[in-house]
Predict the structure.
Amino acid sequence: MSPINQRRLENFRANKRGYWSLWIFLALFIGSLFAELIANDQPLLVKYNGELYYPIVTQYPETVYGGEFESPTDYKDPYVQELIEQDGAGWILWAPIRYSYDTINYELPQPAPSPPTAENLLGTDDQARDVLARVIYGFRISVVFAVVLTLLSSIVGVIAGAVQGFYGGKVDLFFQRFIEIWSGLPVLFLLIILASIVEPNFWWLLGIMLLFSWMSLVDVVRAEFLRGRNLEYVRAARALGLDNRLIMFRHILPNAMVATLTFMPFIFNGSLVTLTALDFLGFGLPPGSPSLGELVAQGKGNLHAPWLGITAFIVLSTMLTLLIFIGEAVRDAFDPRKV
């Protein structure tokens, strides 16, 4: 590692709030990647007649366990549990939370949404689905969406800004007018129109958001390339006849990436907020998908069930606060006055 990068790493670690926020956020995200092992209505492992079965991976008919039906096994059925455990050697290994994000609890003590209990630690929503399970799955899909959108929009934004700043002149003028027009389009209205034509899904929504999110980095990269293209080593490279693409991405881009990296945590934060807002309005992920925005909408629509709104507020505020602290630490790490 170069001395400059070493100092940047030390500066990042010196910001204790941002440093520990990164570790906490990574721990939460890595944990959510194994959501199926944490919250699932299918057993993780079943032992029956000396053999092991993996219901979390494969659906087994009830006849495998000595039942009468060829339909998928309902492991919560007391009759099925008795079949598996009848010889004394069979057992079922469940996930810590015995509900998936779409599992409906038909045995609630009161009509849904029901308050927190020992079985549903954060209660259930108005469709009798476990809130904690939906939070875990919703956290994962929100972070994955934000990561993919941030990476793709950063790539497009860096390329567009590099072309503008490096070539300047008419190219820069044309791109600036295009960005002004494109950024003025009513994104929400376009999403509403498209959502009425095509049912949105993860990749469809990602593509639509990418059409507009790439502009957040263009101005920063453009300014760095406008400054860098007049430096002596760039002029020397041009005089030697080096290809423009080589000059742009090997000689100027590394310097421009400093400003880009300081903005990326905040772009990531904005991507999360955008997805949450769209889900809240009903123009995001398909109905029934585990979503933090849908949980906010549940809290708004069920004011008599305060645990829904409180859970949504705590999860979103914690997530966004951690990301802001991380962004501040990255900004301090790349501050030229501290390197």
